[in-house]
Write a structure and sequence with these properties.
single chain, 2 helices, 4 strands, 91 residues, elongated
Length: 91
């Protein structure tokens, strides 16, 4: 789960992990994000491993990559449906 938060005068994304698999994914994500410094990838500000397992990352105003992919897929499905409808109406 990802929530918007505020840390050191910045908007941040706080990503929490619950299940055992998610905690494994957490460790992988910490390793990967801590090695990357690129303007197109969110910055990792910190990680909590004590009571709650979470990442504190740069907040991406436009949403997640998954949100963008889902939106594109919805548009593709709508266009495909319109194409099929126009084909059947034409025939």
């Amino acid at each position: 789960m990802v929530r918007k938060g505020h840390w050191r005068n910045k908007d941040v994304a706080v990503k929490t992990y619950i299940s055992a698999q998610e905690k494994k994914d957490f460790l992988d994500e910490v390793r990967q994000l801590s090695k990357v410094n690129h303007p197109n990838i969110v910055k990792l500000y910190g990680a909590c491993t004590k009571e709650k397992v979470c990442l504190v990352m740069e907040f991406a105003e436009g949403g997640s990559l998954n949100d963008g992919i889902d939106e594109i897929n919805e548009v593709k499905m709508a266009l495909f449906s319109l194409f099929n409808l126009s084909f059947f109406l034409y025939c």
